[in-house]
Write a structure and sequence with these properties.
The complex is a heterodimer of chains A (about 250) and B (about 300).
Chain A (H helix, E strand, L loop, with lengths): L2 H17 L1 H23 L11 H32 L2 H5 L5 H30 L7 H25 L3 H17 L12 H7 L3 H14 L6 H25 L6
Helix pairs in contact in A: 1-2, 1-5, 2-3, 2-5, 3-5, 3-6, 3-7, 3-9, 5-6, 6-9, 6-10, 9-10
Chain B lengths: L4 E9 L5 E10 L4 E5 L6 H9 L6 E6 L2 E2 L4 H7 E4 L11 H11 L6 H10 L15 H13 L5 E5 L7 H16 L3 E5 L3 H7 L2 E6 L2 E7 H8 L2 E6 L17 E3 L4 E6 L8 H10 L6 E6 L2 H12 L1
Parallel strand pairs in B: 3-8, 3-9, 6-7, 7-8
Antiparallel strand pairs in B: 1-2, 1-4, 4-5, 9-10, 11-13, 11-14, 12-13
Helix pairs in contact in B: 3-5
């Protein structure tokens, strides 16, 4: 294992975060705070409790997931896309590193940033609403697994995209809508039966449901299914990245 | 002794069907400076990219210090440093950070002393804290060389290293290359400045249309393929060459006021004495005479035209 390379890539990516602190950390925290002000306080005060949980507290796991998914995807995708765009990818391709080491550096840094961000949002949420964490271990497990798996997904996106438009189109047109429709702001049980069934095809439902369970022991789908689906998504991303490196897809001519 | 690089029957066909390399076989000796010359699109960068691991070969093999560059890629890539043709740099990084990054990427622990040594040798030390964004094109080129040297490679590829670089900087770079060779580093360079290859290289390889058409010691190449010419300046234009001079196959230049004689330096006799005697016998006087030898550029152009 080329640990020096993993550390070099990881440190390089983390340094990029420090350079773009406002964009990476401050901006998502401000926008999430606005969600709390609008949905938690202004509108939330007029919405009844959901399964015995105040609406403001109910949306905390969904809001953390919203930021976690979008930031994991955008950080990891930009991390690998920019060297491709600028041409500096030549150095990575000619270096004695395997796909696993490359991934540990890039996706590891992207996941770290997302976890830090998720923790900051959780701390920020505590300022607005009362947040209970019933299962801290599982909360952390879902947080890390989601950050890692969506960083892997972002990495795939960064290799697939051949322009900035494609890089932005997936988070904007796929990730954000799926998160909004995945129960971030409501319980699936509030939907008509037909839409409940349709919603079960949305993979984000399982992430939010499992994560919310770790807070309030309240889930739309079984926790084991949530965990299983997240694990399946993670493994699928890993296999796809492995294929991309072995085939040279959009990396080596 | 194992060759620094041994390339055997290397082929590269791109997805669109373009054959960039056709059965290329080449040996690069340890410690030499090898210049790979060829027109644009000849296959130079493709060849370098395959050796360095950036592109996949369609068939054939590459051994670096006796190690297969696919199976033993960790070993071979550690041995190689690459300075690419394009000025691809991490725009927002500082010079010191980007060179240190390269060292780590190639599996070596941090060594600020070595990075300092490399930056000083390339006159970059004063700019170590500058963002690459603020550097001139020539300085960026130096940064790329510094990055390639950060992990102390034994083989260095320089793909058009002096393109767009001013004369002073170019000479500095060649001084660095010479010192690298003195320390045992094998250098493979491609360049458009053929006079550089003429000055620097120990051996020359010419590639055209994906085929290596010649590999030769530079001195021998210049001797064998180089030709010498004797140019005689005449006081009056010569309307017609006398039949007695036909055997010398003279050319007339400058509206008949020059006679050009081409001779072989490798031949037993140059024929100059006989020519001068024949000119005297024919009553042809001359006011001046000069000799010249064809440059590597002349030889290169001739070879490429011949293979086209």
């Amino acid at each position: 294992m080329n640990f020096h390379a993993v550390r070099a890539i990881y440190a390089f990516e983390m340094a990029r975060t420090r350079r773009t602190l406002f964009q990476s950390i401050v901006s998502p925290v401000i926008s999430t705070s606005l969600y709390f002000v609008i949905f938690g306080s202004a509108i939330g005060s007029r919405i009844a409790e959901i399964d015995g949980i105040s609406y403001g507290s109910f949306i905390v796991p969904g809001l953390i997931m919203l930021s976690l998914l979008t930031e994991s995807v955008s950080n990891a995708s930009f991390g690998i896309f920019f060297p491709r765009f600028s041409g500096t990818i030549y150095e990575l391709l000619s270096a004695p590193v395997t796909w696993v080491e490359t991934l540990l550096g890039y996706a590891g840094a992207a996941a770290t940033k997302s976890i830090i961000l998720g923790s900051i949002i959780l701390a920020t949420a505590n300022l607005f609403v009362d947040v209970q964490i019933a299962h801290p271990f599982w909360m952390l497990t879902f947080l890390v697994m989601t950050a890692v798996s969506f960083s892997l997904f972002g990495f795939i996106l960064g290799i697939w995209a051949d322009g900035f438009e494609k890089l932005q189109i997936v988070p904007m047109l796929i990730i954000t809508p799926l998160t909004f429709l995945g129960g971030s702001f409501y319980s699936i049980s509030m939907l008509p039966p037909f839409w409940q069934t349709v919603t079960l095809f949305n993979p984000v439902v399982y992430l939010i449901s499992g994560f919310r369970w770790s807070f309030y022991e309240n889930a739309d789908v079984s926790v084991a299914l949530s965990f299983g689906m997240t694990a399946v998504f993670l493994v699928a991303c890993l296999l796809l990245i492995r294929w991309m490196f072995h085939s040279g897809y959009r990396l080596r001519s | 002794m194992t060759a620094a690089i041994q390339i055997d029957n290397l082929n590269k066909t791109y997805v669109g069907g373009f054959r960039a390399l056709k059965d290329v076989s080449l040996e690069i000796r340890r410690g030499e400076i090898f210049a790979l010359l060829g027109p644009n699109g000849a296959g130079k960068t493709t060849l370098i990219s395959i050796v360095c691991g950036i592109a996949n070969a369609t068939s054939g093999s590459v051994l670096v210090d006796g190690h297969d560059n696919v199976k033993d890629f960790r070993v071979t890539r550690t041995l190689i440093g690459l300075v690419p043709q394009e000025l691809s740099t991490d725009t927002f990084e500082t010079v010191f950070a980007t060179v240190s990054f390269s060292r780590g990427l190639f599996g070596l622990p941090k060594n600020p002393e070595h990075v300092e040594k490399v930056l000083r040798s390339l006159s970059l030390w004063d700019r170590r804290d500058s963002k690459i964004l603020t550097l001139s094109g020539g300085m960026k080129r130096r940064v790329l060389i510094a990055k390639a040297l950060a992990h102390e490679p034994r083989i260095l590829f320089l793909d058009e290293p002096t393109a767009g670089v001013d004369v002073e900087l170019r000479q500095d770079m060649w001084a660095v290359v010479r010192s690298l060779q003195d320390s045992g580093v094998t250098v493979i360079l491609t360049t458009h400045y053929i006079e550089e290859a003429e000055q620097m290289a120990d051996r020359i390889g010419v590639i055209n249309h994906g085929e290596v058409i010649l590999v030769q010691e530079k001195r021998r190449l210049m001797q064998e393929l180089g030709k010498r010419q004797l140019v005689l300046q005449l006081p009056e234009p010569l309307a017609e060459l006398p039949a007695s001079l036909a055997e010398f196959e003279l050319e007339r230049g400058e509206d008949g006021k020059e006679l050009i004689y081409t001779y072989d330096t490798q031949g037993e006799r140059t024929g100059i004495t006989g020519l001068l005697a024949a000119l005297g016998n024919a009553g042809i006087k001359f006011t001046d005479l000069t000799t010249s030898q064809s440059s590597l550029e002349d030889i290169f152009v001739g070879l490429v035209k011949k293979s086209a």
